[in-house]
Write a structure and sequence with these properties.
homotetramer; about 300 residues; Beta-lactamase; 14 helices; about 45% helix; globular; glutaminase activity (chains A, B, C, D); Beta-lactam/transpept-like (chains A, B, C, D); Glutaminase (chains A, B, C, D); EC 3.5.1.2 (chains A, B, C, D); acetylation (chains A, B, C, D)
């Protein structure tokens, strides 16, 4: 495994820094693009890591998987009345599709879908973001995980497009709480700072039939685990989900902070991080590293 | 395995006939909806079957996988300049997305994408449909496979929407041959008649790293096999690909003739057939049977 | 003229009450649909009226012409950098087009466009709605004009779709003030209550090269007057602008309160009111009355 | 009048040649962009002209008004079941809107609408293009008018997008004849060659309540004349109809050959020609000339 990580690092080195760090808010724009880390956490409890694998970064959209898991734990199958399970076929923040489909977002990993999921969690928890952070601390075994409030604040300040989506869903009756409140919870969850090691551990239950070796509990059922993985496989990588399945072939989820998490069912979870993004908003070196990984292990789910 | 088939049949029986047989052309509308068959062909060469598993039916869109495989054999990776690999997020025959994306169809399994693939095969073969039929006869080990020319003729007569898509792609420079010629080849391939047994055998190379136990040859490489399966997983089931992944969890492809093929990598290929379709055009009982199957074997790729 | 009004009333009588009173907010839903009134105010200062011509009603979108006029007075030609002058070709509150056109609404008479115009007026006036009401009181010569605060409040409560549009425009940098503030001003202006007589007088400057015989001032220039009339002619009647031009042939603007104002350049302004609306949201009897009018006078601008 | 023409020529001179000659087919691309002509034909039979007013050019989309008039003469009001009367709000050859509106084009001046109108004329005439040319020869009083068959042939060769639209409409049941036949008639009508003088005369009936002083007959009724003018006013100038109404304020129709025709009801018809086009496909100098004209005469229909 360790030699696999070295091979991947070697393959990907020339791509590190290629692309553009997310700069839609100042707080994200200052990250050094020349960072790169990987961590693998296997179902038998081994941790393998290389590069900047312990540097915390803004998890951003990777948080959508945590929110979804939290909502599934409470709402089970009923939640799919408010959000779809189909790939979107359009850029991740498009209002067009939302309008044509009467306020039901296509899946929980586009922004509109994640907002509806946040709205569900808002209805359930008194302080949704603290509930979420507590949940993620337990999954990752790291009680020190912090929210970057400056990032959350800055996202809120530039909330316009997300606000537009939330209000549009409210106009279709698919929003229960105050838009402003849900936006604050949502941005706080996106602003969690975690390292590759933290994330590989926190996602390990998805590689392990829903059981977390870290927290020692069955997080969601085996069937729900397969479902979350299926959603990541079809919709986890913005408008690159199809070619990610084509080239990498395992469920994955990325964030504009440069993190990409992937799940190799029944074997391990892996997190790659490198801040410079390609044109659709996924980490250039991160996606390349996962492609290199599946080439080397000669295996994908398909 | 045989008892699995009996369980599935039992589970699905009440759904057989539920929905609506494809009736956009008269030649398809006359099929008896109360038919149901399954065939499984395992990588170790065993065949399991139940119900109407030897009744030939119109394979329709399932032919898109054969056309794609034929094109991959010749064009390799270069073919992805003319067709994408992303889910479409819109009904299978929409021109809207084609127009917004400048004539490059989203994937080879929506009609526009299949037309481009047919155009590629048209550039390569003198008589593309005969080349295709020969290819499928070898893959299925059934030299008697026939084309239903009445169906092909009838599809051609109502070709308008497909013609519109082909001409639109030609307006963007993404079409090489005469539209009318390609349409005829395309409709002929859709009009192949095959049984569940034929299809399970013909698709077995996709469950077996690209090697066909039937024809005794490596059809495409192991990597290309994973890629075709990945495409089926993200885009094989019209606008139900996501929920098919969510509920069934294996690569699949359906046709309006009521057939659904699924691939369980490294294990077996399976074909289910029942002519009555649900609202998005997939076989009602067919999809339910595959869902029942993955529940019983407690396994999906995810 | 008076006999013309009687003829129109006679023609239209059977249509009064046909359609559906706007019911998206309770405060509008209670209006008696069986009301009908017309008032004509000619350039030589004569007033002609029939039916419920002095009953005040909620002017709703007719207020968009007043807002536009107020903005033109201040911003002149520079305002067209923030809002277009083309018909929209889509229902009046669609976000789709707004997204494709990067937050620049197509014209000032769709909701998005009116919100941008309100945002301009918000930047200019300390209390925009009072400035607007004062302006309209002067134009109509009726110092008693009132705002129906219950209607404004109710619109605000169901502001979701308008909020979505405003935030979407803000995401494109085409909004200067707080969304919530502009929405309040906007809804207050829509909630002005005016009668046919009030409106015919208030719009008379548009029939009179920009000069108001009521307030005794040149409201906007002769050229600007022609421009406002041109905008009403191409975009004033929601998704019925074209057939209104086809059948009636004069600039017009309608509101969901059931009012329709029309301008016969160099001759007179006319306001018709009847609360029941057709399928695109224009007064059924109102549009029919104006059609009857142009038939009887055998004249249109075209 | 003659001095008005000199003033306009003077105003517009710097713009002649600005923009880009239509080059989507070779036969159009070779026109010298530095040409400019105007002809005015008044209701009292006077002809005024300046510049290259007698040079024939390809009338292209201006022919849509002739086709429409021909169809109205035969089908009257029934024709509006197959084509709408609303502005399109999207580029002139978009399939998107056609798909959303089930194959009913928005108006007769976008390509899809003109194809439906051509299909109507195809159902009526044995040799539709000869009927059309004969009609236009009579309207213009020029029996020598010719079709540029090279242009028609070249348009047909690049027919793809128009073919796509026609087939799409056929898929919705809104097309009666063979697509290829209608396309040939359509392109032949677009390929008529006429000068400014020819066009000003041929359009004079629209300025004159439907009566042609040239052919000495009532071409269509007075009411139909107003309707055609209304359609030109709301939809005649591609995606610039609104700002043309705003700036020029009279009904107009343009073609990619660089011609623009305008109708000043009850006074005169005017044709301007200059081949270089602006970004939406209207003659740069042509539109500017008409804007200059309405400024000088201080008059528009609004």
């Amino acid at each position: 495994m360790q030699s696999l990580l070295r091979q991947i690092l070697n393959d990907v080195q020339p791509l590190v820094g290629e692309g553009k760090v997310a700069d839609y808010i100042p707080a994200l724009a200052n990250v050094d693009p020349n960072q790169f880390g990987i961590a693998i956490f296997s179902n038998d409890g081994e941790l393998y890591e290389i590069g900047d694998s312990q540097v915390p970064f803004s998890i951003q959209s990777i948080s959508k998987v945590f929110s979804l898991t939290l909502a599934i734990k409470h709402y089970g199958d009923t939640m799919w009345q408010r959000v779809g399970r189909e790939p979107s076929g359009l850029p991740f923040n498009s209002l067009v599709q939302l309008e044509y489909e009467n306020g039901i977002p296509r899946n929980p990993f586009i922004n509109a879908g994640a907002l509806v999921v946040s709205d569900m969690n808002q209805s359930r928890f008194a302080t949704p973001h603290y509930a979420m952070r507590e949940f993620v601390r337990k999954l990752s075994g790291n009680p020190e995980l912090q929210t970057d409030h400056k990032v959350a604040e800055s996202e809120y300040e530039f909330r316009y497009r997300n606000a537009a989506m939330a209000y549009l869903m409210q106009s279709y009756g698919n929003f229960e709480n105050e838009v402003e409140d849900v936006l604050r919870s949502y941005f706080s969850s996106c602003a969690l700072r975690m390292s590759c090691v933290d994330l590989a551990k926190a996602f390990s239950f998805l590689a392990n039939k829903g059981f977390s070796n870290i927290s020692g509990e069955q997080v969601i059922t085996q069937e729900e685990t397969r479902q979350v993985n299926a959603l990541m496989a079809t919709s986890g990588m913005y408008d690159e989900a199809g070619s990610f399945a084509f080239k990498v072939g395992v469920p994955g989820k990325s964030g504009v902070g440069g993190g990409v998490i992937a799940v190799v069912p029944n074997r391990f979870s892996v997190c790659v991080w490198s801040p410079a993004l390609n044109s659709v908003g996924n980490s250039t070196a991160g996606v390349a590293a996962l492609e290199s990984m599946t080439k080397h292990i000669g295996w994908s789910v398909y």
